[in-house]
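Hey, I was hoping to borrow your eyes for a little while. I'm sending you its amino acid sequence along with the backbone structure tokens. Take your time with it, there's no hurry, and the full record follows here.
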Amino acid sequence: MASALRPPRIPKPKGALPSHYYENFLEKKGPCDGDYKKFWAGLKGCTLYFYNSNRDSQHVEKLDLTALVKLTDDPPWGSSRDPGIHFSLVLRNQEIKFKVESLESREMWKGFILTVVELRIPSNLTLLPGHLYMMAEALAKEEARRALEVPSCFLKVSRLEAQLLLERYPECGNLLLRPSGDGTGGVSVTTRQTLDGSSVVRHYKVKHEGPKYVIDVEEPFSCDSLDAVVNYFVTRTKKSLVPFLPDEDYEKVLGYVEADNENGESVWVAREAPAPRGPGPAPPSGGPRQLPPVPVTPVSGPNKLTPLRNEDENYVIPIAHAPAATYVNGDVPSPSRPVTRKPKKVAKVPAKPPKLPVAPKPEPQGLNGGLAKKLAGNSAQAFFPTTGLADLTAELEEKLRRRRALEHSAGHAGDL
């Protein structure tokens, strides 16, 4: 039975391999590494790229060669191996050690590195004519590349700002390119060096004449690019002038190497930086949004509560309803003098309704006057049972009787 035909497997598209001036295996040991680590390395421009294998298109490390101070081929201290397979790159802030497989490979690496850094083919190396031709091609490519780009030490700053940068950050370099202040489209070079403990600052003018840059010195020197201008100052001062390069050795995005299970190649994966968010925890997805916290006013004293407002308190009268002050040659109350507010009038509670007068009960008709008096006397004694009160009543009755007798006698005398 014939097996079912399977569609042809389409290979996974691979990323184009980068082109380099020179590439080969290279073992590297940094200042924090315990031992050498083998990489596939490639030189492009003034940067040395390191890959896990020669099939990877994404580098895992890189080394900037613009801060190169010197290149040495001395073997490591205490090493008994062949010194022809070791060399070191002394940079401005660190030293990197390398190890190769042969003397020819070491000379090739040294030749290409010095060619792209100094823009000239070194003459003190053991190289074949074919090797020198390869370096001449790399030199032409590097000069063309630098003619189209601006050097890293070119900053759009003023004359005073350039001096301040070189003064505050001497570890980053002492040579800086900046736009010319005359408005002609030229370039100025600012340098700062130390002589006998005092700083010496110099400014040089570079004229832009067509495609050329002419350095205005005693013997004018013409350059094809701004990078050639920087190289002129570096080489003519025996590398005492160093291009100003801000310290940007630290990455801002986390990246790592991930192996592809299908073809075994390594891929560089860089995660996107998370968007900044405001302070406070993020609300849970799908749930209710959290309300913003209410600001709480701190209490000035310990266990001090804010007193409640008294409803009967006299409030300040608004300005619109304040009575107009009269100024008739009289004393006007000062605004600073405390004003005595009149207390509020309390509404009077209505009094209880007056009791209706009770009419005296009529005396019974069948009782004579003596019996009525006797009953009245008994009722008085019953109402005032105290002996003192009864005596007082008798005394008053006696005085009243005498007064009536005197009035009666006076009336009869008037008739006579």
Remarks:
- Residues 273-337, 363-386 have pLDDT under 50 and may be disordered.
- Residues 71 and 81 are 20 Å apart (CA to CA).
